[in-house]
Each structure stands twice: as C-alpha cells, then as structure tokens.
Predict the 3D structure of the following.
Amino acid sequence: MLNRREFVTASSAAALGALMSRDLLAQPRKDVGSSGGGRAVTLFEWKPIAPDLASIKVAFGQGGNVTLIDGKEVAYLIDTKNSPWGKTLRREASPGAPKLVVINTHHHADHTGGNHAFTGDCDVLAHEKCLPRIEGNVARYISQIKEAVGNFPKGESEGLKRAREDWTELYHNVTKLEAKNFTPTEAVKDTHEIATPGGAKISLRHFGPGHTDNDLVLHLPNSNVLIVGDLVFRKVFPYVDQNGGGTIEGWISALKQAQALCDKKTRVVPGHGDLCGPEGIADQITYFEKCRDAVAKAIKAGRQRKDIVTMKLPFHGYANEDRQSMTMIQLYAELSEKK
C-alpha cells in the first residue's frame, strides 16, 4: 500500500495532472473536417479508424480518446472527454442518426466529464461499479470547468471560437450542475450485448479490476474493432489508479482476455495515444511484465523500498515519464503483500 506521503503526492499529482495536462489545455492539433463526412471545422481531430471503416471515427485531444460509431438510426459515442468540452463534443459528433447512445469505458474525469451534455436526453451506459465513482467525481468536474477560465487554449480558429462559446455558456451555468448531470442512466453488468438496428453487435465486457474496478471493453466483431479504454496507454506511461480499485495483476489479466478477442487485423482504440492493432495490447502487457519482473528481482535481492519505487526502466519513446514511479509503487505493494 502507499504510505501517507506517497498517497498525498500521487493523489495531488493525478488531480493536477488531469486538470493541467496536455489533454485538457493543449492547443488542438489542427482544425479538420470529417474526412469526407461533411463535418464542419472542429476543435477535436477526428480520424476514421480505417479507410474501409469511415463510419467509425476517433476524436483526439482535450481528454481521453473518444470513438463515434455513426449509424443511420442509432449512433454510439464512447466516452465524453473532460468537463469543459462536453457540449463541443456533442455538437461536433452531431451524427445524422436520430438517437445517440453514450457508453463510458470507466469513471475517470477525462472520459466522463462531458457526460453533462448527454444525460438529459440520451441513454448513457457504464459498468455498475462505475456509477458511484462518477457520483463522487462531481467536485472534480466542476473544478475542471472553473479552472478552464484562465487556461483556455489560445488561438482564433473557428473550431476554437465555437468551443469557447460552448464553454462560456457552461461556465455561467456551472452552479446548476449536480451529480445527476454526470451519472450514467443505465448500469450494465460484466457482460452486456447491444444489437444495433443494422444488425451489427457491440459486446461490452468487464474483465475484472485492471486500470480501475469498472473498465469496459467494447468488441465490434462485425467490424473487427476493439475499444479498450485506459487498459491501453499507447506509448504513454500509464496512470495506475489504486484508489479506483485497480491492480496491475488484474490489469495484465484483463489485457490478456482482451487480447483473446483479437486477430492480426483487429483495429484497437486505446484510451490514450494513437490507434493501433493488437500489438498495442501486447506492448502494454510487456510493459507491466518487465516492470513486475524488475521489482520482484529487486525485492528478492533485498533492496530497500525507497530505491525500488524510483527505479526507471528504458521504455524509449513513451510520454509522461514521471508516471513510471506509479507503476513501481503499485507493483511493490502488490508483490510485497503477496509475499
């Protein structure tokens, strides 16, 4: 377990990091269209998951990756980014379908903060363990909205101007927001199936505690797509949420179960980082296993805890290097307890 100093440090860093991170405050990558779908100038960078799957798009920037499955009768939006961008996300996704269903992959604010733009008139689904954790996030959501006042991305692009208008309206009404505005309208269990009007299937799976205790993986077998949320941080050192019920041993297990749903051609949407194939899941497993082996070896050699939790392993090209210590702290706790 984390000692008090580590707990305070990790919690403060996580809260500050989510609020002040590149995802929340960075300039949008660029104004882009809908890659042939007629979408106007946008804040987010929308990319089709593959040339032959133009109806499935991913929005990057200002929070975790968001996936839009755009159907003629029903569209599905996976996650809703940080709080200041909920209305902007809804406007930009603007599917032609008359009905929109939202699914949260887990409770973290960079994936659920924008729920307020959808809960009033859309079905919003999440794992049953996710709902109480989202209800406990309200102060965080409000803080994100308020803090954006002095840290709004700079620029005069059309997409940014419209996003600023969206946020200004939200800021003026922030005192009206409460837990129900963010809490999903439907809780699902470990296995949940959605049959789309077009006959395709969306399978929701919870493989046990991993990144958190409420991670959902979405499998689209007809399209051979797997949306894994924050079970995969693609080329980014992961955030390990012990207080959110996560465990690295469970995380590895969940990844291996997700991996079993893939073949060589599966497209994988990670929670953070670029789109990938099944190699993204394999790389995440390798990351944890290498760190686990290094910590186990150090414990066996009798090294002191303070030296173990600050070990740095060479994972070249990974972003957010300061987070590697979170992995080591968690692994030391798990392995010491197991021993």
